Amino acid sequence: VVIRDLTMINAVDWSWWLSVAAGGYNDGLVYWPAATEGGEDEVYVLKRYYTFGQLTRFISAGDTRLFTKSSDPAGWAGVDAVAVRKPSGEVVVVVVNDGAAKSLTVSGLEAFAGAQVAVTTTTASKNWAESTLTFGGELPLEKDSVTTFVFG
C-alpha cells in the first residue's frame, strides 16, 4: 500500500495510524495483549513492523523519488518498487515481491554495474537480514519478500 501511494498518487508523506495493537486486534506494528484486561505482558513485534521498516529505515525527508520501470513488465506481476536518490547521491530501491523468487532488471541502474550493493531483506523467516551483492544488472528477490538495495 505504501509504495503504491508513493508511486501512483505521488504521496509525499505516509504514516501508520496505529503503532500498538491491543486486545484481539493485530493491525498495529506491535501487538500487546496486556492492553486488555487479563492479557499477557509480552509485546509481540509483528512482521508488519519489519516490512514497514524497510521503507522508514532507508527513505527519508529530502530524498528525491525516481521513476522505476522494469525491462520486463510481465515479470513485475506481484511486484511493487520505489526508488529514491538521497542527498548524498546514494540510490535506494525498495521492492515488495508478493510471489515466487525472481530477478528483475530495472532501467536506470546501469551505471552501478559491478558496484557493491547493500541489501536488506525481510521474508517470513528473516527480519532485516543484511547482505551485499556485486550488482550485475539484476535485482534478486526472494519469495514473498521486501528487499531494499542501497547503491552508493
Automatic annotation (TrEMBL):
Pfam families in the cross-refs: Glyco_hydro_30C (PF17189)
InterPro entries, per the entry: GH30_C, Glyco_hydro_b
Positions of the Glycosyl hydrolase family 30 beta sandwich domain: 64-116
Source organism superkingdom: Bacteria
Protein name (record): Glycosyl hydrolase family 30 beta sandwich domain-containing protein
Organism listed in the record: Candidatus Limadaptatus stercoripullorum
Lineage: Bacteria, Bacillati, Bacillota, Clostridia, Eubacteriales
